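Re: Re: ligand-bound prediction request (bumping)

Still looking for help on this. To restate: I need the protein modeled with adenosine-5'-triphosphate bound, output as structure tokens. Inputs repeated here so nobody has to scroll up.
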Amino acid sequence: MKALLPYFHYLKPHWRLLLPGILCSIVFGVSSAGGIPFMINVVMSDLFEKRVDNPNLWPAIGVAAMLVGIFVIRGVFGFVGGYFMSWTGMNVAISIRDDLFAKLQSLPLAFFESNKKGDLLTKINNDAGAIQTLIIEVAAECVRQPATMLVAIGYLVVKSFTFGEFAFLLLFILAVPVLVLPVKMIGKHLKRRGREMQESHAHIMQHLTENLDALVEVRSFGLEGAQQEEFSKRMDYNRYVQLKLKKYELSQQPSMEIIVSIVIGAVCVFAYAKGITFATFAELGAVLYFTFDPLKRILRMFNIVHRTEGSLDRVSSVMDMELPMRDPEVPTLLERARGDIRFEGVTFAYADEPVLYDLSVDIAAGTNIALVGPSGAGKSTFIKLIPRFYDVSEGRILLDGSDIRDFRQADLRRNIAVVSQAPVLFDRSLHENILLGRPEATREEVEEAARRAYAHDFIMAFDKGYDTLAGERGDRLSGGQKQRIALARAFLRDAPILLLDEATSALDSESESFIQKALAELVKGKTVFSIAHRLSTIRHADRILVFEAGRIVAQGTHDSLLEDSDVYRNLVKKQSLA
Ligand code: ATP
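Reply:
Sorry for the wait, this slipped through. Here it is.
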């Protein structure tokens, strides 16, 4: 139950549902454990034992009406209580899922590199689903069953004193620890197997996502058989763990029922030996039923908690994650930046080993910078530090004279447009995809941005024009078309800082020329950082930064570097940039 504690605060906003739910559940408990045994006593002793030869039917009709009345009260309050409590449970479960998703939106990129996609999907889907089931079940039963049991125990105590007969009470008290024992033993196993099952789900999901992300590679390298084999292996393990889990779940019910049957047997023998009347026996039997049945259900609830503890821990591991990149308490205001960027002694490491060493560079607003260097030299990493996708390990980055960590992240990123090598589109309309650049833009502004990115004509050639769906990750568009949609987004954003990662793969010459023209327009008046693969980009740059092994080893214009830098000359030779 301890694992549930961090989730209790979710109940607070739903007290309007919770309160009637609790009250109805209490009425249900009282009418079950108090009303039914009481009625049995009335029927047995007041009606049947006192029946005369020619009975008047009215007392029997009155008792029957009372009996029906009690079941109506029990039924209505049980229904309303269960409904409100389940409603509360669902609201709580939805809030947990919402919070989990919101947390994922705010976690740094580094988190997603060390956590596999399949595992995260399982956390959001299966683990949060298991918690949802748990909460709904627990919510429906957590008041109703204890209330029923407490009333039944109270009834048992009162009757024991009334009859001066404590054997029933004693039997119940003795049976409780015996009933708890198997639950405790099984609970330990359920906890372990429950965790293993969720991990197994995560492994299956991981394999599935990997397979779906690499459909082309799987087919072209003929990996279908190996993929299938791996999938079957993971499914086999999943079945093994599920069967183990089922074994423990299924053994709980019979073991408890056997213990309860021993108690009932003892009660029968005892009642027979003591010559207890049938009416009293039936009444106390019913009370015992209403003590054991809720107890059984409460213990079952504990087992559901045990089984779900793994999921609770897995979800908590994300929820409790400290956010390393918090916004400052008193942020420096940033409306529209000028675009002066300065790296001061910046060192950065993804893990232990730095990949950028002590970089210092000063870039005036409006400068067009090209980054070149061999693969793995640190160009992309350099660019990712500017919008704070990662924070520097040492040194600082200044925008218009202020440390970028002093701004709110949203303000900083609003001033930066990123166009990556392989832009990702969402499976929404092309209009919505461009609108991401500035969500408050009008339809006319979106079209204007598309025109400037040379995307308008190809968009209009689709039957549905701007309402055409892009397909998953933009699969219905060619590489060049996706690039132009990404450029349209950047035009719409009109941010003073532009980060470009040029596509390395060849685009068709028409797309290429459109993109070149659009880019030439887009970069005007902006501070631009391009990871350059094309000679034209390099030639147009005001300054080129040459990266090698995490350092800037030379900088200048194309012509000056050709003269002064061996590294640059070699690069140009190798990449045929000249
Ligand atoms: P390319 O031109 O091939 O894209 P690059 O110059 O942009 O290369 P980076 O991508 O910045 O180079 O990589 C610099 C170094 O950082 C490399 O050694 C790379 O292995 C490492 N690296 C990059 N991304 C990560 C990451 N997410 N986690 C750990 N190491 C990384």
